[in-house]
Design goal:
Number of helices: 11
Number of strands: 12
Structural class: alpha/beta
Radius of gyration: 32 Å
Order of helices and strands: HEHEHEHHEEHEEEEEHHEHEHH
Distance between the termini: 110 Å
Largest sheet: 7 strands, mixed
Helix content: 25-40%
Length: 308
């Protein structure tokens, strides 16, 4: 039987052991946490020093050249195309207006969409504006885009994307790796309903289009992409001011270009991923009645209406 003093000593000893054990556990936990933190820092530093894996490399840049001009549908069509392009990585949108100066409404729309862009102007030469025949629309815009790329880009792929077309985002990822020139079908073109390369036994064997017109390359503007490097190797390549022959003239100017060098996208041209939809033309908005609506929200909306 323990004496009271012995009992008290035993209790104190047990308490001291528990306190020591608690301190040991706390110390080990502190060491574990500190060691884990140090390990994570070292691991992150190590990973930051490693080269990126192949599938993590930055994708080749895309340069989307979009001609535009002042009309009631302009902002709506730029908005639709812009939010499609927003799903595409490493892209620069070259929006080029047929005008003598930029339009604040267009600049505001591009800022709001948030796609990286350059907003430029390239008016149609006066000699073509005055003609009573078909006008070569969008040619000065596209050639201005080519000039920009020659001055500012060394790699990547260029594509002429009109703002009134419809695009499946998959086509942008496919065209991104074009080595020289790539092609694919475009829906809703002429009476045939589609403009497309003809593929026979895996090889390009001509073109299917509602209007051949003696063209070597009877394709739609939305149906081909070109390597920027390939463009640089052809410093005189440009689009002609010849209505109906813009695509053909530009592709001819990329010579020499053999059929077997043209890459066939969209599952070897068995899919349609771009459409020449075109928006219904709308009349200009009626004049705004300042007296009747000047103190309402319509005064703000009126400023957003694009009139020719």
């Amino acid at each position: 039987m323990l004496l009271p003093q012995a009992k008290e000593s035993k209790v104190n000893e047990n308490l001291s052991n528990k306190m020591a054990l608690g301190k040991s556990i706390k110390m080990y936990l502190t060491i574990f946490v500190a060691t884990t933190c140090i390990y994570m820092v070292l691991y992150q530093y190590h990973m930051s020093r490693q080269p990126l894996a192949t599938n993590e490399l930055v994708k080749p840049p895309l340069y989307i050249i979009t001609p535009t001009y002042r009309r009631p549908e302009q902002l709506a069509e730029l908005t639709r195309l812009g939010y499609t392009l927003k799903h595409v990585l490493n892209l620069l949108w070259l929006v080029i207006e047929d005008a003598n100066k930029t339009n604040p409404l267009v600049a505001h729309t591009l800022d709001r969409i948030g796609v990286p862009y350059e907003y430029l102007v390239a008016p149609m030469p006066e000699q073509y504006k005055l003609t009573k025949r078909a006008k070569p629309r969008g040619v000065s815009n596209r050639n201005r885009g080519l000039d920009y790329l020659r001055a500012n880009a060394t790699e990547g792929v260029l594509y002429f994307a009109d703002d009134d077309n419809t695009y499946d985002v998959n086509i942008f990822e496919q065209m991104r790796y074009t080595k020289k020139v790539s092609m694919w079908p475009v829906g809703l073109v002429t009476k045939t309903g589609v403009s497309s390369p003809i593929i026979r036994e895996g090889k390009l064997d001509g073109y299917y289009d509602g209007w051949i017109g003696g063209r070597k390359y009877p394709v739609d503007m939305a149906g081909f992409a070109v390597s920027v490097k390939f463009l640089h190797e052809r410093p005189h390549a440009k689009m002609p001011f010849k209505p109906g022959y813009e695509e053909d003239g530009f592709l001819r100017s990329l010579a020499p270009l053999q059929n077997n060098e043209i890459e066939l996208l969209a599952d070897e041209c068995r899919e349609i991923l771009t459409w020449h939809t075109q928006t219904k033309k709308n009349p200009a908005a009626l004049p705004f009645n300042q007296t009747r609506y000047g103190n309402t929200n319509l005064a703000f909306i009126e400023k957003l209406l694009v009139r020719p």
